[in-house]
Write a structure and sequence with these properties.
This protein folds into two domains: 159 residues, Aspartate Aminotransferase, domain 1; 240 residues, 3-Layer(aba) Sandwich (Aspartate Aminotransferase, domain 2). By secondary structure, it is of the alpha/beta class. It is built from 14 helices and 13 strands.
Amino acid sequence: MGDQAVDSLPNRDDERGGPVRSTVLPLRGPWVDQREIDEVNAALSAGALSLGARTVEFETRFATFVGARHAVAVSSCWAGFHLTFEALGLTSGDEVLTSIVASTPAIAAITHVGARPMVVDVDPLTLTLDVAEAGRKVTPRTRAIMPGHFAGCPAAMDEILALAAQHQLVVVEDAIHALPARHQGRIIGSIGLVSVFGLSQDLSITTGEGSVVTTDRGDLAELFRARRFYGVPAESAPPVRPRERARYEAARTYGFGYQMADVNAAVGLGQLPKIETFHAIRSYYASLYELGLSDLDQLVLPRVPLGAQHAWALYVVRLRPERLTITRDAFIQGLEAQNVAAAVDFVPLYAHGYYGERLGLQAVDFPNARAAHEASISLPLYPRMTEADVWDVIRAVRQVVRADTAR
C-alpha cells in the first residue's frame, strides 16, 4: 500500500502538520477483564494463596494446550531456567550453545550453575539461532543447545534437533516469546526436552509475573516441583495438605522459594482461554503492518519461515541504513514525536555491559546480530490496540520515512 492509500484515511491531524495522535499509544499492555477478576477473587476466597488448587489447574491446562505431559509453574523466568539447568546437572566446565540474543534470565542461570554460554550469531532473516555456526562451535564439553524464538518466530527446530542428536545434546528452549508459536505443525513447548515460557504482562498471556516449564520427562517435572518449594516432594506440598505444614515430609533435595502464588495462577486461568483470540488479533495486526509498510524499501519487515506459526510477541522492523540518513534512535524519537511509543528489544549479549565483559563478547564477532541491533525497532503490537491504532503507527512510520527522504 502506498502513501496515497494510507493518507486517504480520514480525520488525521498529521495532514495539518501535527502528530498522528493526540495521546500516546503505548508499546505494549495486558488485556485483563472480569474473567481474571473473578478467578482472583475465587483464589482469595479459597484461602490457599501459594501452590493452591488454581496453580495445579493452571499447570494442567497449560500442559494440555502445548501438548506436553508436564507443566510446572514458577515465580519467574529466572526460576524456570535455574531449575532446568540445576536438574540437568550442568556444572563448571560444561557448555551450552545458544544465540547472542538469548534472554538474560537464561544466561544468568547458565553462568550461575558454573557452565559457560557458547554464543553464536543469528540467522539474518529470522534473528534466531544460526544452526550452522552452532554446529561449528560444538566441543567435547558441550552439553546442551538452547534455541530462542525471538519475538515469537520459531527457530529452525528440525535442524537443531538433528544437531543435538548428532552430538548427544539436550535441547532447552528459550520460549519466553514463543506462546503459541508452531514449527512444522508442532507447538513450541512439545519439541525440546524442556521449554521455559514467560508470563510477564507484556507477553502473549500473563500471570502478572511468572513462568511455566514444560517437559515430557516425569523425573524432571518431579524434581522441578520439589526444588521450587524448598526441596519438599510434591505429594506433601500444598495444596494436598494446605493447613498441615508441620507434617510436611523433610526435604529430599535442596530447593528454592520459586513457587507461583495461587493468585498469579488465577490470572493465568483467566488468560488461558483467550490465547487463540489474542494470537488471532496479533496476527491480524501484523498483517496490517505488512499491508501498510511493505512498499517502503527503507525498511525490512519480519518474515515468517515456511511451515511456521509466528507468535507475534513483538513486531520488529529493521531500518536499511543505506537508504536512510536518520539513525535508529532518531527514528524512534520521530515516532515518539507522533505520540507512538517504540523501543529496541533486539539487544545482543555483547551490548549488555555485564555479560559482554564477563563472556568476552565483541560486536565484530556477530555481524548479523550487530546489523540487526543497530537497525531494529519494535512497534506497538498487543491485543488491546485497535485497528485504528495500528494505522496510526503505520502513518507515523511513513511520516518519519517521508521526512527523512525529503532532506
